[in-house]
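[recover] target loaded
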């Protein structure tokens, strides 16, 4: 009789197989490791860094992959009002569902700070229907 473990990828069960690199690129904190950079060993952890990397790039910035990157930088120098905040939330939801189909977004918070002219974006999501993660970053508007 077989047991269904879930939608967790097979590489997550191989503890010594690295899946990707963490951001920012720093020397590996584990002593005795052969890797030069910190390596991610789970798919959920790598998806988080892929999401961060996606939103750090502007659409059209990569030469051979012009569709990679987010359009949230188009909101720089825009007014912080309810319309732009709801448009930004919708844009983030659309991009994440299109580019990262394995992510299920549970909520997106856009928190304006008019004193410092910044917007904090929090994306709460689940991966493989079991893991709850979040990413937070700031943009200056």
């Amino acid at each position: 009789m077989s047991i269904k473990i879930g939608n967790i990828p097979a590489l997550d069960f191989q503890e010594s197989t690295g899946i990707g690199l963490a951001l920012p690129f720093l020397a590996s904190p584990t002593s005795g490791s052969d890797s030069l950079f910190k390596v991610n060993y789970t798919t959920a952890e790598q998806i988080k860094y892929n999401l961060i990397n996606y939103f750090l790039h502007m659409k059209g910035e990569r030469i051979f992959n012009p569709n990679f990157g987010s359009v949230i930088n188009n909101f720089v120098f825009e007014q912080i009002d309810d319309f732009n905040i709801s448009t930004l939330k919708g844009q983030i939801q659309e991009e994440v569902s299109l580019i990262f189909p394995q992510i299920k977004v549970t909520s997106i918070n856009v928190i304006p700070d008019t004193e410092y002219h910044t917007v904090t974006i929090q994306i709460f999501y689940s991966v493989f229907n079991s893991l709850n993660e979040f990413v937070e970053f700031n943009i200056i508007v």
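[recover] notes: The helical segments are 43-56, 82-99.
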